[in-house]
Amino acid sequence: MIVFRHADSRFPFLWEDSTQPPARWHGEGEGPAHYFADTPDGAWAEFLRHEEIQDPADLAGIRRALWAVEVPNPGDVRPDLAEDILLGNPETYPLCRRETARLRSLGTTGFRSPSAALLPGGARGWIVDGGLKECPARDGEVLVLLGHRSDLVGWPVTLDGRPPEYLLQRVRHFQAQAQDASLREHTALPPPFSPQPPRRPLTVETQRDRQRGALIASLIYAMGFPVQDLRVRIEGTTAVLSGKIESRVAREKLLHLVGTSDGIEAVVDQFEMVGD
Predict the structure, then answer these.
(1) Cβ contacts of residue 103 below 8 Å, gap of 6+?
(2) Distance in angstroms (rounded) separating the CA atoms of residues 6 and 64
(3) How far is Cα of residue 143 from the mean position of the Cα atoms in its chain?
(4) What is the CA angle 209-212-192, rounded to 5?
(5) Secondary structure letter of residue 20 according to DSSP
(6) pLDDT for residue 188
(7) Crossing angle for the helix pair 204-222 and 248-259, to the nearest 10 degrees
(8) Phi-psi group of 259: left, alpha or beta (phi > 0 → left; psi -120 to 50 → alpha; rest → beta)
(9) What confidence category does residue 191 fall into, taking pLDDT thresholds of 50, 70 and 90?
(10) Which tens digit of pLDDT belongs to each residue from 105-124?
(11) Are 5 and 45 in contact (CB under 8 A)?
(12) Cα–Cα distance between 260 and 257 in angstroms, integer?
């Protein structure tokens, strides 16, 4: 079967060791875990969701590779979790990782899950019938393969692409979600995010700053820095970095990298150390 994955075009389309940053289905040091979408839109939606891109103006500066990858059919193994956890915000990740550990203990090397990045029906494609028309609604899926996978063959669909604008309306963006009883029953999780106030129209300068912040964040993740909950906010010539980082050495290297980026004259460090 053919599945899809986005990546930084400067790097291979798969991770090869446990330095992979943690994500929904694997924690720190538990990689590699390879995440694929069943459609190109699903792969792009993962990028848009995690970079929190919602403004069409932010799409212009994106340059990413999209890979088509041939994988063996993993069967119909699926996580035994409630839908609100499978589709939830990052505070649900510990439960998902716990379920991965359970599946590993059973000898599972791959499983399927609903796409958390696409809204219901968001994986529908297109047909040509008297012009270009949308297909009926279709739900997206994610395929997760665990461990080193040198057997997978990939082809670059593009090495310099960006998501289509229509996809912004199909993405399940991170948002405030009340914790329901099933989450509280299984684990102690942080309080839900506060609702965001209505947004003012963005100026050209603000749009440009958000675009630069998203690009810098993408670079940091692509280079494998041990960061979690990364936020990059650009204010003119100043970059404000926040999140969790697990190494002081990596912290210094990251600050130097951002500080020497084009147009950046100052870096404000708001990282929380969670390692040495």
Answers:
(1) 77, 79, 111
(2) 7
(3) 14
(4) 75
(5) S
(6) 38
(7) 140
(8) alpha
(9) very low
(10) 999 999 999 999 999 999 99
(11) no
(12) 5
